[in-house]
Fold:
Amino acid sequence: MWSSTETVTIEREVGNCEDSSDLQRLLECYDDTYIRWHQYINRLVTESGLSYRQLSERSGLSKTTIRDWCIRGTMPRRRESLVRLGFALEMDRFQIDRLLMYGGGFHGLYPRDVLDAACIFVLNLRKKEEEPSEKPSYEMALELFREATEKTVESNDLLMTTQMAMERLLTTETRQDFLDFMLQLSQGEKNRGHLVEYLTDFLEARCRERSRQENGSISIHGLAGAWGSDGEVEKMLSCLKKHGMVPRRDRLIALGLRLGMNLSELNSILMYAGMEKLYARDKLECVLIYALQNLELRFPVVARENAFLLQNLAKDPKLRHQCKELVEEYMECSYQDEDSDWTELSEYICGILEELELPEAEWLLKTLR
Structure:
């Protein structure tokens, strides 16, 4: 629907902005091309040729819900609703991933989650069979999910990456093969282990940093309390660890900014969550790309301090290796910051968002302040 070439062009031009006035002009220039849910959902419905009633019958969603999305521009509250809509519109898994992102920043279909894996398997059946005996549907995926989760495995040693799991799913031919594969996957592989480790590493590093500053012991609860998050951070981590429930994109981005992550680190947690990196076709995320790139140029202290803080603490081997390389680079090149005051990353981001007066930034500003 939107050209990937245009997205790359916008991202490149963001990197060429000298200041916020350049960025403002860029946002105005591409205003008609930024992704807006209201436009996106209406285009999908129009292209489908289906009425609200027909879509409701196919998806199992209420006609009122679909009408609210299309007429009022109401954002979906539940990820499952969008997956149901994707099946009703006969989308492939890539299109459903895009729908999940545009419809609320939800993560894409994830092969190590049992229900998502069932959806991927069913969607792949649709692709393979020109005239399937049974039309692939979300209900078929739900049935497979229930059957797969009724059985348990005491222990097994099968560990695989997300890519390996996806490749296995895409070559799975029969329903029984799918169920056998789900039984083989260890329960530990069905959660977002890398995302949990990455976030925990950063939280513990910030706790240690704050403890040194205040000459006392600061817990994750105490750190989150200082942010005024009212238990949201701990709830996010708990749901992620126990149930594999990934936070919505906006909340994950806000947490990353709270933790002082640079652009590369923020994109890493989005990747681990099964989401796309910061997206230049989203107006708010376009501003964040500019702000984080500009910040790193003006204040190398951000990346440098993160690297020093995490190189020995991080349990995630990839993160530890990245930090080690960055520390060595800074030691060799002796990067210097600009001669201007530095406070915190979240304050820097808020300053740029307030200067641009973006309506899209209202929730993020409220969260970071």
Observations:
- The CA atoms of residues 92 and 191 lie 24 Å apart.
- The radius of gyration is 22 Å.
- DSSP finds 21 helices and no strands in the chain.
- The chain has three domains: 34-104, 113-190, 193-368.
